[in-house]
Write a structure and sequence with these properties.
It is a single chain. The protein has about 190 residues and is mostly beta strands. The model has no long low-confidence stretch (mean pLDDT about 95).
Length: about 190
């Protein structure tokens, strides 16, 4: 039986690529006040040298901070802090102190000024290499200066899905995590 294909509005076409891994990007203003934004638009764009891309809309407060300081940290949250993760995506740092209001703990990063988030399982500290305007988003391409993870959860260059429940955004306020079943097809 043939499956019928149905049109999706172009304004929702990007959702065909969901669920997407969720990250918390921490940034800082020139005076040293930290902020956090929840993003799903984050991806590696080079292995050698290590670089990644985060996409933000220009009206976002975090966009202003990253553009100003040229630094950010990609923090990888788990389902343990899914509520805090949603909060950071739904409130603006122009008005809210997200660290104080969520109880998330800022800790000094190793190589950049923005803090890491203690409750996150992994951290990638970045310096902006390039900024690209695309439609309604800006893509910040960052050089990964250092990356680290909680001990015991990243084995053989993979997260141990029995120990780490990464957050994936489905849409709206809905999130899922991965089942620990790993499929390794043989060719």
């Amino acid at each position: 039986m043939e499956t019928r294909k149905v049109e999706v509005s172009l304004s929702s076409a990007y959702r065909l690529l969901f669920p997407k891994n969720v990250v918390l990007v921490s940034c800082i203003d020139k005076a040293g006040k930290a902020n956090v934004i929840t993003l799903t638009w984050c991806m590696p764009v080079s292995i050698r040298p290590p670089m990644l891309l985060v996409g933000m809309t220009p009206p976002r407060y975090s966009h202003e901070l990253v553009e100003e300081t040229k630094e950010f940290v990609v923090n990888v949250p788990t389902m343990d802090i899914v509520r805090e993760t949603l909060f950071c995506g739904r409130r603006t740092g122009r008005i809210h102190d997200k660290f104080e209001e969520t109880g998330l703990t800022p800790l000094p990063a190793k190589m950049v000024r923005p803090p890491i988030i203690k409750e996150c399982v992994a951290h990638l500290e970045c310096m902006v290499r390039q900024q690209i305007s695309t439609g309604d988003h800006t893509l910040f391409v960052g050089d990964v200066l250092t990356a680290y993870v909680n001990e015991g959860v990243f084995l053989n260059n993979k997260f141990d899905l029995e120990k780490v429940k990464l957050i994936y955004h489905v849409g709206g306020d809905d999130f899922v995590t991965l089942a620990p079943e790993i499929v390794s097809p043989q060719l």
